[in-house]
Design brief:
The chain is α+β, with helices and mostly antiparallel strands. It is built from two helices and nine strands; from the N terminus they run βαβββββαβββ.
Amino acid sequence: MSIKSLNPYLMFDGTAEKAIAFYERALGAKSEGPPMRFGDIPGDNPAPENKDRIIHATLRVGGGVVMISDTMPGTPASKTSNTEVCLHFDDVADMARAFDALAEGGKVTMPLQDTFWGARFGTLTDAFGIQWMFNCQREDCQDQKA
């Protein structure tokens, strides 16, 4: 078996477009082309209120990829999860900026702090309910005073 890559796929209930704009602003994510919408499905005729829901979008975040979609109409997105998205940084100041931006409207569950395992680390849940980990190993971090 040869696995080429692995990425998180984030599901939203009608708020995917807002989440994409938020991650572009907060994390510097870049969309790979325009998102596909439910109204773009050939031969499908979704209800007018569902045609602009996002069926698939891909964001580049640093060297990684996050895929995003709204759920099928009438299917709510899970509000709980045992999955978190971990972002690895090599600059503490950049990590702090991204942490603060992503925390906007969300909840910090562990402020950025030095840890016993040799990293600057913190966690938060963003305004869309997605859980994030921020990590910068001390030996990889620049500007360790931030």
